[in-house]
Structure formats: C-alpha cells, structure tokens
User: Which sequence fits this backbone?
C-alpha cells in the first residue's frame, strides 16, 4: 500500500524547515530559533517523532548537572519521493528519502515516446525500483517531473516541451501521469528543479538566501530560489533565458553541441553514446565552449545585477570535463560584479559547476513533493 503525506500544522512546518535549514538542533535551540516556549517545542517534537518525520540523535556527553542535550534531526525514514527527468535519449529516475538522502539515481536509454507510453514505462520502473530498494509500504510523497520547457497553462498541466519529444507539447501531462501512476504529481521546469536540488543537496540552503542555477540541457534555462521559495514569476516563466538565444541560431545547449559535432562529421546521436563518439573532436568542442562562454557572459552579468545572488552554478548532463572547461572560460572572461559591492572579492564573481552533474534535474524533481510538504506561504 502506498501511503500519502501527513497534513502538517504551520508550527510543525516551521520546525521542520528550521531543521532543514540549520541541521540537527536541541529542543532548547529550536525554542530559541522559533521563539516559542520549551513546552510548545516538546509537544511539537513529540508529535513529529511519533509521525516518523523527526528523530533523536545520540545525546551529547553531559558537561555538568542536568540532562544532556539530545539533538533532533529530519528522519530519513519519514518517507520518500520519486523524480523524473528527460534529456536527449536519456531518462533519469531519482529516489530521495525525507531527509534528502539519495536512495537511487538511475540513467537509461529511452526512445522518443509519447506521454502516455512514457507514463506506463515510468509506472513499471517506479514499481521495480521500490521492490529493489525495499520501499513498499513506506510513505510515498509523490512523483516530480522535470519538464524541458516553459509552462503553457497557469495550473502547470500543459507545457511547451522541446521539439525533439513529439506529441508532448501542450499535452495534459499532469493528468496523464496522475491517471497512470495514481500518485500526486508535481511538474516543474527542469532548470527550476535543478535549482531546488542545488539548494538542498548542493549545500546552498546553509550558504546563501538567493541562488541561480543555469541549466544547459535540451535548451538553456535558469532556476532561481530565494529564501527557500522557488521563483516562478507571474505566469511561471521566470528564468526563461532561452529567449535570449533563438532556436534557429547556435545556442549554449546540450542539443546544440550535439548538432555542432554532427556537422563536423561526428557520429554522435544523443547523450547515450556521447562519450564514446566524441573522441578526436576535442577542437570542435573547444570552439563550442568558446562560443558558449561568450553567449552566457551577458546573461550571467544580468543575473548578478538583477538578483544579487549568493551563488551562480552551471548544471548540465554534459560530461564534467566539458562543463569545467566552460566554467574556466567564463571565469577568465571576468564576470564583473562592480565596484559598488565591496563584499565581492576582486570585483569578480566565480561561476561554479554543480557537483550533481546530469542528475540534478531528476533529484530536484524528486525533492518537489517533499519541499511542498513544508513549503512556507
């Protein structure tokens, strides 16, 4: 039996968010942080421990009279969620536990199939992975899907999916997935999902209040997160920087690099055969990196000026050496922060590479249902 998430009170959500933000804490530290009484904290934590959402760690060694402090943390056993991401010829499925730990991250070749067939395939794979990792009977928060494209409807049901997935554009994706999987479904733009993964799993949650993630996937997009909130904009189009790079011209994207290699005679067809096919085409890749860095510099400077982020990271399913080369070019290009912000050392802003690699969008998609369970209004 698949269990659904437990409804939480606002104070319970605040406590859970504090533990995610600051890590393990004692009850007294939580009372100070949340500015509520010790008795209220005891009541809240008793309930959350009973629900399996919070657990006690071994107590600190006593330093004097009285009981030792007993730290509390988010419990990995509180449940799990599944995330899906589609790239050029690749399906990634991620499973994360309630604390954000990665239970599974799989990558497999997949043909261009329609949404209905995709939903049936995913339903089988989720069941297989649940059996493999002994998850049956545990609380399942839902399934997140990382959509390669912007939303076409305010309810997030219809999406402008990229052209190389025929039959997907304007299809009622949430409806299709809900009817097949019989689970709560979250759909989010792939760059926004990537930003959520960087926030939780990439360490940004304890480092900065505002972060930007640039995702070079099917297209090029940006995910923005501010104080734990995903920035979607009025119609869900926040971060749609792909408009700066028209589709009929060269673009800094995974599909564009594949097309560039093909034009040079490389027999690459998708990410599934990428690493084996690109040997001998290093000069082509280097020229693409030069051009992509030139294209991205203005966009990055605009993000710095508009958002003042604490971090900007690049994420892509492309191999890490290619992304490192791109970041080196960007940082050599001196991304200027400006003399008016003295806190930026040397007047430049370092562009970082995500350590999550191509799995970031799938992991972020898996975190969507868990994040929603404690999302602040």
Assistant:
């Amino acid at each position: 039996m698949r269990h659904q998430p437990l409804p939480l009170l606002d104070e319970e959500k605040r406590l859970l968010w504090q533990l995610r933000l600051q890590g393990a804490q004692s009850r007294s530290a939580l009372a100070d942080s949340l500015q509520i009484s010790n008795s209220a904290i005891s009541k809240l934590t008793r309930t959350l421990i009973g629900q399996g959402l919070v657990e006690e760690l071994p107590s600190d060694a006593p330093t004097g009279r009285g009981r030792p402090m007993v730290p509390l943390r988010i419990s990995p056993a509180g449940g799990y969620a599944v995330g899906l991401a589609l790239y050029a010829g690749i399906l990634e499925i991620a499973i994360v536990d309630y604390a954000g730990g990665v239970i599974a991250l799989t990558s497999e070749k997949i043909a261009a199939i329609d949404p209905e067939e995709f939903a049936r395939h995913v339903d089988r794979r989720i069941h297989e992975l649940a059996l493999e990792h002994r998850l049956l009977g545990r609380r399942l928060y839902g399934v997140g899907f990382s959509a390669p494209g912007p939303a076409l409807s305010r309810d997030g049901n219809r999406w402008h999916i990229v052209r190389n997935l025929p039959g997907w554009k304007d299809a009622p994706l949430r409806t299709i997935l809900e009817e097949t999987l019989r689970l709560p479904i979250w759909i989010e733009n792939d760059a926004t999902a990537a930003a959520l993964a960087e926030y939780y799993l990439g360490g940004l949650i304890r480092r900065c209040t505002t972060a930007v993630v640039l995702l070079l996937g099917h297209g090029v997009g940006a995910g923005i997160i501010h104080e734990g909130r995903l920035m979607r904009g009025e119609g869900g189009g926040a971060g749609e920087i792909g408009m700066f790079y028209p589709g009929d011209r060269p673009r800094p994207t995974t599909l564009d690099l594949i097309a560039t290699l093909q034009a040079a005679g490389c027999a690459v067809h998708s990410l599934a055969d990428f690493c084996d096919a690109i040997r001998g085409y290093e000069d082509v890749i280097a020229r693409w990196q030069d051009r992509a860095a030139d294209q991205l510099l203005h966009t990055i400077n605009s993000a710095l000026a508009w958002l003042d982020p604490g971090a900007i990271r690049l994420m892509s399913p492309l191999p890490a050496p290619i992304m490192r080369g791109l970041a080196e070019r960007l940082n050599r290009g001196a991304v200027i922060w400006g003399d008016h912000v003295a806190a930026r050392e040397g007047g430049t802003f370092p562009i970082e590479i995500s350590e999550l690699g191509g799995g970031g969008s799938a992991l972020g998609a898996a975190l969507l249902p868990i994040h929603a369970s404690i999302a602040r209004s």
